């Protein structure tokens, strides 16, 4: 081998060694591998959050077995119980009193006993009633106590009970029998013998306490699509108040603007040629109004988000931790998602954040539409939160959690993967600045947010419930509305109540009002309420005294009593409203959290309405009251079927008590008016149909707490921004190699229907 060849090979070897060293040095500054990193763990003692945990399926079963053996009355399974039977309607967690929980969490006190709240319908009694029993201790029950009178001031009348699935089955059987009395009319109007028509319930059920009389709207049913857009113009009023199903009756019939005493009378009018009939063809599945089936073949996949080194949040039992945040989550089968002990950097910000109610109030010139005021808690906001579709309802790689419930059955049910948790890159900076004067640099932080989501399908509507926790210490609560609009048959002056969206379909106007409970504990339990807003003052300019300046100044006020802190819906409200602590931050200002509401609510029901008190929470966009254990919720599932004598009246919570240095609760109403238009077919889109509120730190810290985020980016003009050590964004090319292998798609959401 010649000397020249040796020198060439030696040079190549040295170049290779140099290149390898450069690669290794670069890798040292970038993520070392795709190995998953363990997320930060909270210091809280293991298992403390279980004091808030939803009941397990086994605990629910234990409660059922205990009740079956200790009440001394026969119990029929609710799924087949008739109105004249006794049954267990539901079983849920009995949340312990706040004082007991705080002694346990903060002062080393005993763990509160774990208990369940069982709702029973006693129909086979001399005086039928609804009773609520606390059963404990779990997991092996040994006692129960009736808390109905304690909670509501008396027994709950039986007619207030929500309608069960078995009751709807019996009503549908009655309707089918009645439809059979008008065969010629049905064939002419609807190409039907009645079997291809479905009913949609309305609520409330009558005009006075004790009524159980419901309008049912009939639609053409087409498999694989929403029937809500295909009304046939026929509606029936059913009296189902008697304990004996055989005594239920069809009270009245409505068709195309006219009322009839019975289906037989309607048939006679038709045969006599005295009835104007709109002849509808049975919709075909491939052309039905509102079909959601794709019209084009799939295109290329859209963007996907993933965590290069695994989730940066931790989920353990019912507790989530993420970059300083920690919280306990759960699901009430009636009212839906609830959160407890929300802490940031170890300090409790919110003791309880929970959904309370969702109201949908309609207008129409048909009886079913004009009388509809759905209170969705009575149907089951949490119960009907079904399995989420991976990759669409939530990111494909989100963490999915099962939820168990026991309602209208003696056997617990599971909604698999019905709650998701994920870190969301909002694709917008949380904060940033590009400096182009004096010194040149860039600093910023991505807006990465922890999101906890569940979606409830309540008949036609789908509500997307989002709870978000930001790196700035802010909590964001948001609800999106989607799903199908409800509709009426278009006749007469129908467009006074909405827009025509199909050949004979009126998209009926309605409002969505949502109510939340927020038990803030800002730097301790004792808080006050402070408002701030701007005014202008006209002053002589101090440097010449010849001109006038309109100078904005800050007007601060402390609200002393509950009546001052009840802000009517849609009325002007102070732009800054905060829960303040007696303690100050470094700069001498009270440590506070600000409530910022984003809402486009419709008008509240007039207060002279006979049912207004049942939804009196809707009078206020915000009401702040002293927290009381005997005021756990702003409404009741029993308000739906007796709104004229409400079981819980929120307006009574506001009685002008002092709210200075007290344990306070904020009750927040958000919502929007929805006038359906052609673009609501097939579905209402989420764009522009979201409302909510923020809880934002206001002088709570000495500076923005996100400055401690490990995701911060900063580089100056004298640095090389391509260097991974100086700029973590330069490391992303290697992170892209860590794209995960996605698990196979699976969906079992139809199994429990």
From TrEMBL:
Its cofactor is Cu cation. Contains 1 topaquinone per subunit. PROSITE patterns: COPPER_AMINE_OXID_1, COPPER_AMINE_OXID_2. Residues 75-143 form the Copper amine oxidase N2-terminal domain. Residues 304-706 form the Copper amine oxidase catalytic domain. Residues 161-258 form the Copper amine oxidase N3-terminal domain. One of its GO terms (biological process) is amine metabolic process. Gene3D superfamilies: 3.10.450.40, Copper amine oxidase, catalytic domain. Residues 290-312 are annotated as: Disordered. Pfam families: Cu_amine_oxid (PF01179), Cu_amine_oxidN2 (PF02727), Cu_amine_oxidN3 (PF02728). The active site is at 376 (proton acceptor), 461 (schiff-base intermediate with substrate). Topaquinone (TPQ) is generated by copper-dependent autoxidation of a specific tyrosyl residue. One of its GO terms (cellular component) is plasma membrane. InterPro entries: Cu_Am_Ox_Cu-bd (IPR049947), Cu_Am_ox_TPQ-bd (IPR049948), Cu_amine_oxidase (IPR000269), Cu_amine_oxidase_C (IPR015798), Cu_amine_oxidase_C_sf (IPR036460), Cu_amine_oxidase_N-reg (IPR016182), Cu_amine_oxidase_N2 (IPR015800), Cu_amine_oxidase_N3 (IPR015802). GO terms for molecular function: copper ion binding; primary methylamine oxidase activity; quinone binding. The modification 2',4',5'-topaquinone is found at residue 461. Keywords: Copper, Metal-binding, Oxidoreductase, TPQ. Its EC number is 1.4.3.-. PANTHER family: COPPER AMINE OXIDASE (PTHR10638), RETINA-SPECIFIC COPPER AMINE OXIDASE (PTHR10638:SF4). Belongs to the copper/topaquinone oxidase family. This is Amine oxidase. It comes from Drymodes brunneopygia. The lineage of its organism: Eukaryota, Metazoa, Chordata, Craniata, Vertebrata.
């Amino acid at each position: 081998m010649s000397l020249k060849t040796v020198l060439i090979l030696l040079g190549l070897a040295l170049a290779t060694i140099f290149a390898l060293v450069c690669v290794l040095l670069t890798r040292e500054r970038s993520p070392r591998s795709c190995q998953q990193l363990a997320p930060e763990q909270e210091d809280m003692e293991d298992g403390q959050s279980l004091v808030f945990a939803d009941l397990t399926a086994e605990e629910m079963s234990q409660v059922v077995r205990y009740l079956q053996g200790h009440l001394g009355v026969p119990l029929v399974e609710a799924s087949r119980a008739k109105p004249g039977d006794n049954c267990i309607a539901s079983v849920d967690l009995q949340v312990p009193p706040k004082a007991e929980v705080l002694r346990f969490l903060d002062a080393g006190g005993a763990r509160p006993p774990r208990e369940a709240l069982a709702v029973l319908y006693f129909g086979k009694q001399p005086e039928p009633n609804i009773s609520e029993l606390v059963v404990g201790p779990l997991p092996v029950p040994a006692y129960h106590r009736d808390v109905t009178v304690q909670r509501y001031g008396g027994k709950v009348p039986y007619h207030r009970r929500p309608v069960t699935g078995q009751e709807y089955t019996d009503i549908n059987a009655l309707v089918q029998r009645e439809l059979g009395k008008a065969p010629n009319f049905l064939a002419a109007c609807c190409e039907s013998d009645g079997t291809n028509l479905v009913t949609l319930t309305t609520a409330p059920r009558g005009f006075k306490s004790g009524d159980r009389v419901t309008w049912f709207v009939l639609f053409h049913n087409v498999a694989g699509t929403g029937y809500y857009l295909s009304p046939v113009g026929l509606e029936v009023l059913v009296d189902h108040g008697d304990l004996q199903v055989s005594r239920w009756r069809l009270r009245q019939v409505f068709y195309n603007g006219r009322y009839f005493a019975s289906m037989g009378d309607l048939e006679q009018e038709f045969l006599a040629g005295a009835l104007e009939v709109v002849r509808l063809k049975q919709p075909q599945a491939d052309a039905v109004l509102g079909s959601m089936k794709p019209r084009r073949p799939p295109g290329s996949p859209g963007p996907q988000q993933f965590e290069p080194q695994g989730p940066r949040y931790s989920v353990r039992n019912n507790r989530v931790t993420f970059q300083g945040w920690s919280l306990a989550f759960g699901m009430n089968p009636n009212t839906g998602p609830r959160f407890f002990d929300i802490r940031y950097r170890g300090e409790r910000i919110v003791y309880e954040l929970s959904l309370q109610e969702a109201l949908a109030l309609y207008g129409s010139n048909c009886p079913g539409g004009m009388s509809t005021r759905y209170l969705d808690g009575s149907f089951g906001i949490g119960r009907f939160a079904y399995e989420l579709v991976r990759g669409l309802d939530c990111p494909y790689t989100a963490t999915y959690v099962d939820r168990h419930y026991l309602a209208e059955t003696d056997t617990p049910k599971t909604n698999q993967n019905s709650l998701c948790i994920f870190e969301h890159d909002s694709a917008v900076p949380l904060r940033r600045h590009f400096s182009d004067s004096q010194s040149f640099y860039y600093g910023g932080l991505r807006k990465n947010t922890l999101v906890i989501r569940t979606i409830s399908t309540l008949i036609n509507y789908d509500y997307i419930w989002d709870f978000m926790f930001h790196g700035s210490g802010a909590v964001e609560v948001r609800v999106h509305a989607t799903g199908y609009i409800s509709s009426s048959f278009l006749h007469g002056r129908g467009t006074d109540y909405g827009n025509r969206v199909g050949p004979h379909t009126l998209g009926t106007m309605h409002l969505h009002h949502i109510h939340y409970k927020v038990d803030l504990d800002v730097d301790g339990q004792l808080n006050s309420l402070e408002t701030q807003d701007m005014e202008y003052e006209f002053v002589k300019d101090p440097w010449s005294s010849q001109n006038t300046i309109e100078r904005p100044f800050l007007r601060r006020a402390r609200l002393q009593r509950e009546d001052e802190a009840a802000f009517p819906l849609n009325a002007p409200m102070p732009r800054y409203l905060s829960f303040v602590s007696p303690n100050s931050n470094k700069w001498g200002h009270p440590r506070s959290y600000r409530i910022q509401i984003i809402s486009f609510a419709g008008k509240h029901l007039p207060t002279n309405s006979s049912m207004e008190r049942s939804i009196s929470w809707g009078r206020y966009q915000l009401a702040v009251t002293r927290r009381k254990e005997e005021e756990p919720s702003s409404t009741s599932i029993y308000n739906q079927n007796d709104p004229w004598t409400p079981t819980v009246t929120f307006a009574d919570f506001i009685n002008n008590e002092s709210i200075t240095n007290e344990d306070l609760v904020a009750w927040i109403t958000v919502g929007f008016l929805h006038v359906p238009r052609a673009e609501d077919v097939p579905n209402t889109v989420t764009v522009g149909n979201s409302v909510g509120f923020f809880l934002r730190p206001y002088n709570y810290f000495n500076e923005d707490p996100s400055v401690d985020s490990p995701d911060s980016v900063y580089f100056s003009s004298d640095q090389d921004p391509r260097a991974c050590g100086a700029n973590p964004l330069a490391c992303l090319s290697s992170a892209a190699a860590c794209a995960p292998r996605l698990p196979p798609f699976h969906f079992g959401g139809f199994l429990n229907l």
